[in-house]
Design a protein that fits this description.
It is built from four helices and three strands; from the N terminus they run αβαββαα. The chain is of the alpha+beta class and 181 residues long. It has one domain. InterPro entries: DUF922. It comes from Beggiatoa leptomitoformis.
């Protein structure tokens, strides 16, 4: 029965976890007559080792109720800022049909992979909201504030580790079709 109540509380909190997600996408345009030429253009224009990059940052705010000998978190709001950097095939491409077909398969897999990165940030924010709402009361708000921020930072750090493992497991999306040509 005790486990059921804990699960019910966690489920109820995660239903309330609704982070705001702000997304920005920056494209670099590539083109070429065939897949090899498009790859060469992509290699010349991308920044770093990878065709795409997703960065996320979680911010949180919490509010509390202060009583004479207790301080309790009553509300949590979080925001996830996500920035995608992606290649984009030129609108009026000179690519042949084979290159266009390859690009479309690649691009769908690439977007799926990058959305996986985004989801780490969104899930971190949801977990932060749920965890902070489920914190015990503290004797004073200064101690509560420090404990809540430490917990939120710990959650973000865990998601960063998991995200790195995601890239290892997927070979940066290559295992899921995010390779071109």
């Amino acid at each position: 029965m005790k486990i059921f109540i804990v699960l019910l509380l966690l489920t109820a909190s995660s239903v309330q976890a609704t982070p705001v997600v702000d997304t920005e996408t920056e494209y670099y345009v590539v083109d070429g007559k065939d897949a090899r030429a498009i790859r060469a253009d992509m290699n010349a224009k991308r920044e770093g080792r990878y065709d795409a990059y997703t960065a996320w940052h979680v911010k949180w705010r919490f509010f509390w109720d202060k009583q004479p000998n207790t301080c309790t978190i009553t509300k949590v709001k979080s925001t996830v800022s996500v920035k995608f950097t992606l290649p984009k095939l030129a609108e009026h491409t000179i690519a042949n049909q084979d290159a266009k077909n390859r690009w479309n398969r690649y691009y769908h897999a690439l977007i799926d992979h990058e959305n996986g990165h985004r989801d780490f940030g969104v899930n971190a924010a949801k977990e932060i909201e749920a965890a902070l709402l489920n914190m015990n009361s503290y004797k004073n708000c200064t101690i509560l504030e420090k404990a809540a921020n430490a917990l939120a930072h710990k959650i973000v750090d865990e998601y960063i580790v998991d995200e790195k493992q995601y890239d290892i497991d997927t070979n940066h999306g290559l295992n899921n079709g995010a390779f071109f040509p």
